[in-house]
Amino acid sequence: MHDRPVEIRVHDFGEVDTGMSATEARFEAERCIQCKKPLCVKGCPVNIDIPAFIREIAAGDFRKAAAIIKEQNMLPAICGRVCPQEVQCEGQCILGKKGKPIAIGELERFVADQERAQGMVMPQKKPATGRRVAVVGAGPAGLTAAAELARMGYRVTLFESLHAAGGVLMYGIPEFRLPKEIVKAEIDAVLALGVELKLNHLVGRSVTTKELLSYDAVFLGTGAGLPYFMGLPGENLPGVYSANEFLTRVNLMRADRFPIFDTPIKRGSRVVVAGGGNVAMDAARVAVRLGGKVTLVYRRREEDLPARVHEIERAKEEGVEFVMCANPVKILGDQAMTGVECIRMEMCALDASGRPEPKEKEGSTFTIDADVFIAAIGQGPNPLLIGELPEMKKGRRGNVTIDENGHTSMRKVFAGGDVATGAATVILAMGAAKTAAHAIDKMLREE
Amino acid sequence: MFKIEKTGPIADKIYEMWVNAPHVAHHAQAGQFVIFRIDEKGERIPLTVSAVDGDSIRVVFMAIGKTTTHLASLRAGDAVQDVAGPLGKPSEIKKYGTCVLVGGGVGTACLPIIGHALRAAGNRVIGIVGARNAGLLILEEEMKKACDELHISTDDGSKGFHGFAADLLKQAMAREKIDAVWIIGPTIMMKVTAEATRPAAIRTFVSVNPVMVDGTGMCGSCRVTVGGETKFACVDGPEFDAHQVDFNALMQRMRTYQPEEKASLEKFQEHQCKLGGGHHA
Ligand SMILES: Cc1cc2nc3c(=O)[nH]c(=O)nc-3n(C[C@H](O)[C@H](O)[C@H](O)COP(=O)(O)OP(=O)(O)OC[C@H]3O[C@@H](n4cnc5c(N)ncnc54)[C@H](O)[C@@H]3O)c2cc1C
Ligand SMILES: Cc1cc2nc3c(=O)[nH]c(=O)nc-3n(C[C@H](O)[C@H](O)[C@H](O)COP(=O)(O)OP(=O)(O)OC[C@H]3O[C@@H](n4cnc5c(N)ncnc54)[C@H](O)[C@@H]3O)c2cc1C
Ligand code: SF4
Ligand code: SF4
Ligand code: FES
After folding, report:
1. What's the number of domains chain B is made of?
2. Which among B151, B174, B264, B252 has a CA at the least distance from the CA of A258?
3. What domain range includes position A279?
4. Which of B208, B222, B236, B257 to mutate to test the pocket of ligand 5 (most atoms within 8 A of CB)?
5. Is B216 inside any structural domain?
C-alpha cells in the first residue's frame, strides 16, 4: 500500500493507493507459507484459490495467477481494491495470528492490473444450452450472475436502468478508491463472454414483469439503492443531498468537472456529512476534493464507526473533522441551507448490535454553519421492481427473501446481493450471485 | 445510440423531436417520461413522452437551458446517446365522467396522450390551452382530436380568450359538473390554477418537474412534499394530487442550480457562436 501524499491527492480524483511494484508483489508472495488447509480461502466469499495464485506470483507467472483468480472471480481489480479484506481473506490468514497477514487484496489487485495492461485472459466457456436467463441490475451481483451463467452456456440478457453498468461501483464508490476505467475494463471482460447488456432499461417499466418471467430463469440483482433521509425539518432545502445523489453527480455524471460536463453540483464551502459508514467516508472525501471544509457527524463513538479503519484514517488525513456522539436534528435556512443544528448523544445500554445505544442529551444542541448537508445514513432495497411482483416474499425492510441457494419464493426467480441482504459488500453480493447462478443451472438442467 | 427521426420548431423556442426508442415506445403510457442524455458529457434530463408511433416516441421541449438548447440544435439523422424509460407512474386513467385538461405553454404537449386515454376509458374531455401569446400555442390540431371540445386563452388576447387558463377552467366548472382535472404547465401556473378546483374538491392532478438525476428512485433529488410526506417524483409521480403538493418548496428546489445553469448555457452559446451557426455544437 502506497498512498499518494495528502497535500497532492486532495486536489484531484486520482487513485489514493498506487499499489505494489512487481518486486514488492513477489516479495510479499514469497511470505505465504502455502498452507495445506488454507484458512484464507474460507474467508473469501467466492473461494478464490488464494495459495495457488500467490504461488504463481512468487514464481513470476502473473498471467497464470490471473487465470486462477478468474476461475472464481471475474472482477479481481475491483475486489482487490474494495473488499474489506481485514475481515475476510486477510482476516483469516494464518500469518495474521502472530504477525502481518499476507496482503491478499493488494496481490489480487496487482495481478489484475498486470493482466489488464497485457490483455485479459478469457476463462473457459461451456457449449450453448439454448436456454435464456434474464439478469436484472448490472451491479456486482448481476455482473457475477451474468458471467457465471454465460460461462455455463446460457444466453444471458442483462438489464440495467442507468446508462452505465456497474451499479454502486460506477455511481457510488469514488474514482480515488476505484478508478472507473478499471471498472469498465472488468465489465467489458464479462460482456466478452457473450452477455447481452441492455442499458437504459428499468425493469418493471421498460420491460414488464410478464416479459421478464418469459425467460427460462431470472436473477434479481437490483441492489439497495433507495436512499434513507432522516426526516429532519428543512431536509428538502436546496443544498441537502442524499449520499447517493451527491456521489452519483460526481462519480457517474462527473459534476466535479462541471461545466466541461453538464451536470452541476453545489460545491459547499462548509459541508456536513451525517453517518459513519464507508458511504459517509466516501461522501466526506469527495466533498474535500470539491474544495469544502468537511465535518462528519456520527451519533455513536469513534470506535463504533462502521467504516473500514483505513478509510477513516485517510479521511482524517485529508482534513475531515470528526464530531462523534452527535446527531443532526434540524437543517437551518430559509431559501437555501445555512447550517445544521445538532444534538449531543449519550451512550447508554448496549443494543442488539452490541454497541451502546445513543440517546439525545437534553439541551445540548449546537450549530454547525454549512451550505451543504449530506445524509449518509443508509439505503434500503430498491422497491420499484419488487413492488411489481406482489407474490414475492419480502422481509421486514423490503428486502427479497431467499433460501440458501438464492431462490426467492417465486419459481424461476432467484436473487442475491444488496436486494436480499440490505446494504452489504461487493464480494458478498458476488458470492450470493454465484450461488444463485449454480442453483439456476441445476434447476434448468433438471427440468 | 437512439436515432432522431424528425425534429424541428413548432413554436417560439419550442421543438418537437421523434426518436427511435422501441423499449420506450412499446411500453409508454400517458403521463410517463423518459430521460435523455445527449452525449458522454451530457446531463440526464427528463422529458415527457408526448406521443408514440411504432418504434418511435415524440418529446416536445422548450429550449431554456444548456441541454435543451443543445437538443434543439440537433437534426434528423443525429442521435441521442441515452434514452431511458418509460419512467414514472402512468396517469390515473379511469372513468371519471367529465374531465378537463389544462395546458400551459410547453406543458400542453403532455395532454393529448392523456386525452386519448381518458376518452378511450369513456370520459368526456374538455381541453383548455393557455399561452402567453398566439406564437407560443402548440399542438392545437392534436388537442382538438384528443378532446371533445377545446378552448384557448392567451395572456395578451392575441388568440382566443383574453386571460388565463384558470379563468376558462372556472367557466367550464360553472357550465357543467367536472369530475377530474389535469393541469400541466409551468409550476407557478399549476399552483395558481389548482386553486380553482380546491373549493369544490374536484380531483385534480398536476405533473411536477423537480430536478432529476437517475429517474429510478435512487438519489432523492426529485423529492417533493405531498400531503406533508416526502415523495420521489420519478417513481411516486410525476403526477400528484394538486391540492396536496407543496409548490413553494418545489419551486425553491427547482432553483438550486440557477447560477450553474446560467454559466453552463452561456458557455454553450459562446461555443455555438464560435462554430458560427449552432448546428452540431
Ligand atoms: C458509497 C459506497 C461505498 C461503498 N464501499 C464499499 C467498499 O469499499 N467495499 C465493499 O465491499 N462494498 C462497498 N459498498 C457496498 C457495495 O457497493 C454494495 O454492497 C454492492 O454494490 C452491492 O451489489 P449489488 O449488485 O447487489 O447492487 P448494486 O451495486 O446496487 O447494483 C444494482 C444495480 O441494479 C440496477 N437496478 C436497480 N433496479 C433496477 C431495475 N428495476 N431494472 C434495471 N436495473 C435496476 C441499479 O441501477 C444498479 O446498477 C459501498 C457502497 C456505497 C454506496
Ligand atoms: C417528469 C418531468 C417531465 C418533463 N417534461 C418536459 C417536457 O416534456 N418538455 C420540456 O420542455 N421540459 C420538460 N421537463 C423539464 C425539463 O427536464 C427541463 O426543462 C430540462 O431539464 C432543462 O435542462 P436545461 O439544461 O436545458 O436547462 P437548465 O438551465 O439546466 O435548467 C432550466 C430549469 O430546468 C430545470 N432542470 C434543470 N435540470 C434538470 C434536470 N436534470 N431534471 C429536471 N429539471 C431540470 C430546473 O428547474 C431549471 O431551473 C420535465 C421535467 C420533469 C421532471
Ligand atoms: S475476492 Fe476479496 S475476499 Fe476474496 S480473496 Fe479477493 S480480496 Fe479477499
Ligand atoms: S492463510 Fe495466509 S499463509 Fe496460508 S495460504 Fe492463505 S495467504 Fe498463505
Ligand atoms: S431522480 Fe433520483 S430519485 Fe428521482
Report:
1. 2
2. B264
3. 229-375
4. B222
5. yes
Q: Is A100 exposed, middle or buried (0-12, 13-18, 19+ CB in 10 A)?
A: exposed
Tally the residues of chain B: 281
| pLDDT tens, residue by residue, A248-271 | 999 999 999 999 999 999 998 999
Residue B98, classed as helix, strand or coil, is strand
pLDDT digits (tens, 9 = 90+) for A159-168: 999 999 999 9
Contact B225 A236 (CB under 8 A): yes
Ligand nearest to the CA of A161: 1
* Structure letter (DSSP) for residue A87: G
Chain B residues within an 8 Å CB radius of A227: 218-220
| Residue B277 maps to a domain | no
Provide the 3-class DSSP secondary structure of residue A308: coil
Whether A248 and B214 lie within 8 Å, measured CB to CB: yes
ipTM value: 0.94
Alpha-helical regions (H) of A32-179: 39-42, 50-59, 62-72, 76-82, 89-92, 104-118, 140-151, 168-171
Contact call for A205 and B66, based on CB within 8 A: no
What cell does B85 get?
Answer: 424509460
CB contact under 8 A, A248 and B27: no
Residue nearest to atom 3 of ligand 5 (CA): B217
CATH of the domain at B113: 3.40.50.80
Instruction: Kindly state whether residues A366 and A384 are assigned to the same domain.
Output: no
Phi-psi region of B3 (alpha: psi -120 to 50; beta: other; left: phi over 0): beta
Q: Which of A206, A240, A251, A419 to mutate to test the interface with B (most CBs of B within 10 A)?
A: A206
Q: Which of B219, B247, B270 to mutate to test the interface with A (most CBs of A within 10 A)?
A: B219
**Are residues A258 and A136 part of one domain?**
no
**Helix residue spans in A73-103 (DSSP H):** 76-82, 89-92
Nearest to A200 among B83, B223, B225 (CB): B83
- Which residues touch A441 (CB under 8 Å, ≥6 apart)? A149, A152, A154
Q: Is the CB of B232 under 6 A from ligand 5?
A: yes
Closest-approach residue (CA) in chain B for A200? B84
Average pLDDT, chain A: 95
Owning domain of residue B141: 98-254
Residues A215 and A348 in one domain: no
The pTM of this model reads: 0.95
Tens-place pLDDT, residues A107-161: 999 999 999 999 887 888 999 999 999 999 999 999 999 999 999 999 999 999 9
CB B275 within 8 A of CB B243: no
Show the DSSP H helices in B161-257 as ranges.
Answer: 165-175, 187-194, 233-236, 247-254
